[in-house]
Amino acid sequence: MLGTLEEILPSLQEDIRVWVMTKESTLPQVDTILDKLEVASDDPVPVNLRIANNLKNPQLYIFTSGTTGLPKAAVISHMQVLKFAAGLWVLGVAPHDIIYITLPLYHGAASLLGIGGCIELGATCVLRKKFSASQFWTDCKMYNVTVIQYIGELCRYLCKQPVKEGAKNHKVRLAVGNGIRADIWKEFLHRFGDIKIRELYGATEGNICFINHTGKVGSVGRTNFFYKLFSPFDLIKYDFQKEEPIRNKHGWCERVKKGEPGLLISKVNAKNPFFGYARNMRDTEKKLLRGAFKKEDLYFNTGDLIFQDQDNFLYFWDRTGDTFRWKGENVATTEISDVIGMLDFIQEANVYGVSVQGYEGKAGMVSVILKPNKSLDLEQLYQHVVTYLPSYACPLFLRLQEVMEVTGTFKQQKFQLVREGFNPSAVSDPLYFLDSCKKTYILLTKELHVKILSGQMKL
Description:
Elements: H1 2-8, E1 18-20, E2 30-32, H2 34-39, E3 58-63, E4 73-77, H3 78-85, H4 87-90, E5 98-101, H5 108-121, E6 124-127, H6 136-142, E7 147-151, H7 152-159, E8 174-178, H8 182-192, E9 196-202, E10 209-211, E11 221-222, H9 225-230, E12 233-236, E13 238-239, E14 244-245, E15 262-267, H10 281-286, E16 288-290, E17 298-308, E18 313-319, E19 324-326, E20 329-331, H11 333-340, E21 346-354, E22 363-370, H12 378-388, E23 397-400, H13 415-420, E24 431-435, E25 440-443, H14 446-454
Parallel strand pairs: 1-2, 5-6, 5-7, 7-8, 8-9, 22-23
Antiparallel strand pairs: 3-4, 9-10, 11-18, 12-15, 13-14, 15-17, 16-17, 17-18, 19-20, 21-22, 23-24, 24-25
Helix pairs in contact: 3-5, 7-8
């Protein structure tokens, strides 16, 4: 990282001190660490030198992934670090376990739950510098791994690897993570054996967490009276057009019925505080919902849509920034991605909404990359989406990319794609338009783009 550091050093603020893990450095105004560690005392840090004086003091910042906007530095307190560190113990991991971590360590799951959990338990940690789908199970066998950490995309990459004999010949008994889709969940168990999957729900900066202890496929956990007593939350109605919670004539939010997706909000109190973003009051305040059901109410707005079934199991539906409204209907991007991903020539599908001049809401657009040695079948794609999706959810625009931009934790980047939209003059990738008359996707030319914006081509 020294090369990157050298580039940005002149633009850093004067009050920022930079430390590098070396004995000496030629860079100006940079402190070195290794030389000082050699002469430092092994005794505990004296009390008068400790900055933190209570559990709510900040310990570190973790930047949000920035899938639908710019990353923000979430304040992580000592209390949150200790809660994370107890997570593996809660999930049934023991000191004799060997945990395999391939996620980036700037991610809360790897650093706080994974590394922190290993330190808390005294368990063994196997760290890989970078995730490798082809070497994953080889590593697990070599190091006698018993617990793995995942995020949904990681499991999908593993399931896309060629089928090999002895795929179930390993010691992994537990998988801990979040974001695995129901279809990948089932395929993962079928391919790799009887592994207990413990799906979690939570945000780096959030004050609420769900854990699926039962292995119910697709669920992020289950709620009950006692859970809501210690961690109060609600699922409320959301206006996708205005991108804000719906309030009734009295100004209060309204809870959704079971089976209906609602915005997850979590009560902010002394037991469940929200520490916000570092030096960013504007974005901190945007994550708070005031006066939800009473004047003095204060809730953390997760930005996530969750639904609860009749048996009180909870399921992730979509993010509010990802979900969009078209033709008066709410469209869930995850649902469309899953459907398009069923096609044998599609490697990956990233769905988002784009604004179209003269129309309310946002029209569906999908960016796809193809599997190796496969070609794009526009007619088959058209037939597939009109068969499996309601008309309002069928993507009107299609973008063919060679590489899909993702964050360091494999989350799809939408921010830049939304900004670039469907203008063939501004986008170098091939663009296509869903033509209902021709029953296929057709090339989106500059002339066709003009007709869409002028209203000559109806959507």
